[in-house]
TrEMBL record:
Coiled coil: none annotated. The keyword Iron applies. It comes from Leifsonia virtsii. Belongs to the truncated hemoglobin family. Group II subfamily. Keywords: Heme, Iron, Metal-binding, Transport. This is Globin. The lineage of its organism: Bacteria, Bacillati, Actinomycetota, Actinomycetes, Micrococcales. It comes from the Bacteria. Pfam families: Bac_globin.
Amino acid sequence: MSIPVGPQPSFFDQIGGHETFQRLVDAFYDGVAADPVLRPMYPEEDLGPAKERLVLFLEQYWGGPTTYSQQRGHPRLRMRHNPFKVNPDARDRWLAHMRVAVDGLGLAPLQEETLWNYLERAAFAMVNTFEE
């Protein structure tokens, strides 16, 4: 007897789609808004545009809509972060706020690990200086 095999749902769908990524990003930026090192890296008065960009990026990365690329082109994450001094302290602060946000989602352990592993690798990849 064969088991029908259809397309597997994307990680985006598995963890709850747009709502989940919006919750993640909202919680993350709650921490960033009060962080004296990270907040200055967001030149807009309102964190709204940065929130929207991160939601769109993460959704696309994890198999959701491709709105990010349609609006902004290729992500080019290192290039987009290059104007900012991303040192190990900034990376660690970013990860601390993101850890709180991920923990708040209540994902299944494998989903949480999958998401966290990506976020951690991405944060380490964005470091562009070791100056204070």
